Amino acid sequence: MSTEEQRQRHREYMAAYIRRKPEQAEKARQRTKAWRLANPERKRAYAADPDRRAREYAAKKAKYAADPSILFLQGLRERGVTLDEYNTQLELQGGGCWFCGETEPLYRVRWPIKRLFIDHDHETGRIRGILCTRCNLSLSSHERGRRSLLLSPDRIAVYLTHNVWLTKPPAPLAGY
Questions:
Q1: What is the DSSP string of 7-50?
Q2: CA distances from 54 to 13, 40, 59 (A)
Q3: CA–CA gap between residue 81 and residue 29 (Å, rounded)
């Protein structure tokens, strides 16, 4: 696909996105406008050197490849969690996933290191616990109204209704 075809595809995608979610599109426009006003020199630099963004992206990619834990720590910061809190919760959970106890999570492309992930409520932002990839995806399916074959409905109810962050999980339920 040529660059012009990619640009056209992106324009079409953004037009559809704006029709679906006008309030989020407006917030994005406001953030972009604020950034441009706060960074006029960087805006000019990007306009003057079209390859600059590609060079910066390549440098960032190389930095993450050299030290994959940077992405993990960045994810913790985004959720307002310190590494000590993460390790404390992981220790309370027995070193593994809150649901299944898995200590070796499945590999994910975005995260070049194997880590368990912080689960949070997407509506409130409240952190709920540390899950493996498989249980996190099953919980996500349950929240979207699909039946989870992997997780017990009773255990899901306990997880969703109690504040489990920095607390020890209950013993696994029979039949899990």
A1: HHHHHHHHHHHHHH-HHHHHHHHHHHHHHHHH-HHHHHHHHH-T
A2: 22, 19, 9
A3: 29
Q: What is the mean pLDDT of the chain?
A: 80
Specify the amino acid at residue 24: Q
Q: What is the DSSP letter of 6?
A: H
Strands in 12-146 per DSSP E: 117-120, 127-131
Looking only at the bridges linking them, the beta strands covering 127-131 and 117-120 are antiparallel
- Give the phi and the psi of residue 91 in degrees, each rounded to 5: -65, -40
What gap in Å lies between CA 31 and CA 29, rounded to an integer? 5
pLDDT of residue 175: 44
Q: Which long-range contacts (CB under 8 A, 24 or more apart) does 23-27 make?
A: none
Write down the pLDDT at residue 106. 63
